[in-house]
Each structure stands twice: as structure tokens, then as C-alpha cells.
Write a structure and sequence with these properties.
Blueprint (H helix, E strand, L loop, with lengths): L1 H48 L6 E3 L2 E2 L16 H5 L2 E6 L5 E5 L8 H14 L3 E4 L2 E7 L4 E7 L1 H76 L3 H28 L5 E4 H18 L3 E6 L4 E4 L1 H17 L6 E9 L2 E9 L5 H4 L23 H11 L3 E7 L2 E9 L5
Parallel strand pairs: 9-11
Antiparallel strand pairs: 1-2, 3-4, 3-7, 5-6, 6-7, 8-10, 11-12, 12-14, 13-14
Helix pairs in contact: 1-4, 4-5, 5-9, 6-7, 7-9
């Protein structure tokens, strides 16, 4: 129970922390990428704005006069503009390539840049991205300028950022896992300690009460012999028997929860069939019909005493809470990897809020009938402890005016 709680707490803490971490990394990466992209576009715009070309020296020969233009001061250019790598292609209005500037880099040759610029001019897009280049097209009057900015450094920076993020994120997840386990232990430990103290108290109280109850019973027998039948002695005898029944159930619960029973290979089919027979008479006396459908050769690894007790608890519970004139149906079958023991009776549906607490100690759906018939709300708690000791599960379902208790135990396939 507490292991499952620890796992749920660890999963919850990790989920929250992972979401926060992932969200933070995404925001940082997207903000950085957007900032670098905008900065590169601003640089490209500056490059295009400050790219002059002064007329023709002679027909068909264009002279790059950026260095001669009085409007452009080299010392006034931003440092990033000087450090960035730009390519440019100048094209005439009729689509002829006038000049290609590769910035003395061998990454892109003139033919590739000219071809790419022609496609951009034909598409009519004024700006965009192609491979590792971002581009901008501008009409300079006598010619069309297609300028490119090499975006390789930004993409490599983004890739490096992602790599370091993944490395740091992986290391952070490992640390967060151990942090979540530590927090889960701190949260669950007080509850587990309290639960263990409660179980120990039940066991100790049961053992301590056995002696005074036995003494009272012995004295009652002596008094009965001396004074004969007496209503007061009968009342004491009745309450003493109730107390004795409660102590027996407390000890059974403590034994089921605290003691690991010896396990052996069992034919659960024969065991359940043998335990069902005596309850046919009990059901008949209560105006019920007890029916059963027990599959053969269902084997489990378990404790025969506890599994008999589990069967009797489920049958007793169904008979006591079933409507008269109806039937109780017990079934046992092999389903995938489990032996499934199910007991169904006709009765009022159990509210969902009560189903969650039905297997708790001393819990009863009808509090006004506490202790009636020497039942104290411990039977289903004992059943759950038995199933847990056999590494199984037990639950209750309500449907179509029926109440069904189902216990699932690990199936022993090879015998």
C-alpha cells in the first residue's frame, strides 16, 4: 500500500518538475531563437539599406561604389554588421545577372547564388529563408538586389544550445528523481509509522484481552452452577461471547497483516468447492439459494487456511446482505494470469463513497447496526489483508441491482 503511495507521489512530483523544467527550457530556447532571428533580419535590412551602386561606368559594366559613396561611413557600421557574412546578387529588370558577391567565401559559388536569386525574383517573395541563408529582395531603381545573410552560425548556436539543454536536462531529471524519492519518503514515513503502530496495537490489544475474557467466562460458569439460571448472568454471558468473537477477529486481522503465511501449491477449485458446501445450509435458512460455477484445475500458490477464510468471509457477507428469496452466486475461473473468485448477491447498491472505505477496519455502511450478529466490520478488512498477503487484489462493483465482490490471485500456470 505504502509502496504504491510512494510511487504515485514520486510520479506526481516528477511530472510537475519535468513540466516546469521543460517549459522553462522551451521558453529560453524559443526566446533566444526568436531574438537571434530578428537580429539577423535587422542586420540584413541594414546591409540592404546601405548597399549603393553608382550608375554605369560604361555600357554593361557596373561598378561597386560602396567604398566611394559619401553616404556610407565604414566606421559608423555596427560591429555585428562587419562580422556577419553577406552575399549579394544584382539583377537587371529583365532578369539578367549583373553582379554576384560571394564575400570571398567558398561556401556558395556564384552560379548557385545566381540561380537561387533568380528563383527568388521569379517567386516575388521579398524575404524568407533558403537552407542556411536568409534573404531579402529590394528594388534599387536601376537594378534588383537580392541579399543573403549566412545563418549557419545561428543554427549551430541553436544546435549547441539544444545539446547542452538535453545534457543539463538529463542530469537535472536524475537529481529531481532522487529529490522526489526523498520528498515521498518524508511524506509517507509518518503515515507508515502510524499505520504500523495501529496494527501493533490491534495485535497487542487482542492478546491482552484474551485472558480477562477467559477469566470472566470461567467465573460465569461457576456462578451458573451455584445460583442456576439468571437473566443478569445470561446478559453477561452474551456480552462476553461478543467480546470473545471480537478478540478472535482482531487476532485474525493482526495475523493476516503481520505474519507471512506458509505458502504451498493449492488446487483452489477443490478448496473453494469444499468451503462452499457448508454455506448452502446457511443460505437456505436465510431464504436464499446458493449457486456456484467453479472451474476445475485452478491452481495457486497460497495458504489453505487463509484462502478458506477468504471464501467464507465473502460468502458470509453476501448471505447477510442479500435480499430474502433471491440467490447468491459464487464463481471461480482462470482469467489470463489470475484466478478470479467472485461472489454476487442481490441487494442495494453501495454508494461510491462507501465502496472506497469498505475494506477499512470497523467500517460499516450502516452505522446503526454496528456489532449486530457479532460482526464488527472486520471481515472485509481481513479479506483484503489475506489477498494482499497473496499479492492479489479485491474490489467491489454494483450493477443491475447486484453487488459483486471479486478477489484476484496470481495464477499458478505450471503444476
Amino acid at each position: 500500500m505504502f509502496k504504491k503511495s510512494r510511487r504515485k507521489i514520486v510520479a506526481s512530483i516528477l511530472s510537475i518538475l519535468v513540466l516546469l523544467l521543460f517549459g522553462t527550457f522551451c521558453v529560453i530556447y524559443l526566446a533566444s531563437y526568436a531574438e537571434m532571428t530578428n537580429e539577423n533580419r535587422r542586420l540584413l535590412e541594414q546591409y540592404v539599406d546601405t548597399y549603393p551602386l553608382r550608375g554605369m561606368a560604361d555600357a554593361g559594366n557596373w561598378e561597386d561604389s560602396r567604398a566611394k559613396d559619401d553616404r556610407v561611413d565604414p566606421h559608423s557600421k555596427p560591429p555585428l554588421l562587419e562580422l556577419s557574412t553577406f552575399y549579394s546578387v544584382l539583377m537587371s529588370k529583365d532578369g539578367q545577372v549583373l553582379k554576384v558577391d560571394t564575400a570571398d567565401r567558398s561556401t556558395f559559388d556564384e552560379e548557385a547564388l545566381a540561380s537561387l536569386a533568380g528563383e527568388i525574383v521569379e517567386s516575388g517573395r521579398s524575404r524568407g529563408r533558403e537552407k542556411n541563408l536568409i534573404y531579402q529582395m529590394a528594388d534599387k531603381g536601376d537594378y534588383v538586389l537580392v541579399a543573403f545573410l549566412d545563418n549557419t552560425m545561428m543554427l549551430e548556436s541553436a544546435s549547441t544550445l539544444i545539446s547542452y539543454t538535453l545534457i543539463f536536462g538529463g542530469a537535472a531529471l536524475v537529481l529531481l528523481f532522487f529529490l522526489a524519492r526523498y520528498l515521498a519518503d518524508r511524506i509517507v514515513s509518518p503515515l507508515e509509522e502510524s499505520y504500523q503502530r495501529q496494527k501493533q496495537f490491534v495485535s497487542d490489544a487482542g492478546h491482552e484481552l484474551k485472558t480477562p475474557v477467559a477469566v470472566v467466562n470461567a467465573n460465569l460458569e461457576l456462578l451458573s452452577r451455584e445460583i442456576g439460571e439468571n437473566p443478569w448472568l445470561s446478559n453477561i454471558q452474551y456480552e462476553n461471547e461478543r467480546m470473545s468473537a471480537l478478540i478472535i477477529q482482531l487476532l485474525e486481522l493482526a495475523r493476516a497483516e503481520n505474519v507471512t503465511p506458509p505458502m504451498e501449491t493449492l488446487d483452489l477449485s477443490r478448496l473453494v468447492c469444499g468451503e462452499t458446501l457448508p454455506f448452502e445450509t446457511v443460505a437456505y435458512e436465510n431464504g436464499l439459494a446458493l449457486l456456484s460455477g467453479i472451474a476445475e484445475n485452478v491452481f495457486v500458490q497460497g495458504n489453505s487456511v487463509q484462502l478458506k477464510q477468504l471464501t467464507s468471509i465473502l460468502l458470509d457477507n453476501a448471505i447477510r446482505h442479500s435480499d430474502r428469496g433471491k440467490e447468491v452466486f459464487l464463481s471461480l475461473k482462470a482469467e489470463k494470469n489470475h484466478a478470479v473468485l467472485s461472489v454476487v448477491n442481490d441487494g442495494e447498491a453501495i454508494p461510491p463513497e462507501d465502496r472506497k472505505r469498505l475494506f477499512e477496519r470497523f467500517y460499516r455502511t450502516d452505522t446503526a447496526r454496528t456489532g449486530e450478529g457479532r460482526h464488527y466490520g472486520l471481515g472485509l478488512a481481513i479479506a483484503k489483508a489475506i489477498v494482499s498477503a497473496h499479492k492479489g487484489s479485491i474490489d467491489v462493483q454494483c450493477h443491475d441491482g447486484k453487488v459483486e465482490f471479486t478477489a484476484r490471485l496470481p495464477l499458478l500456470k505450471s503444476v
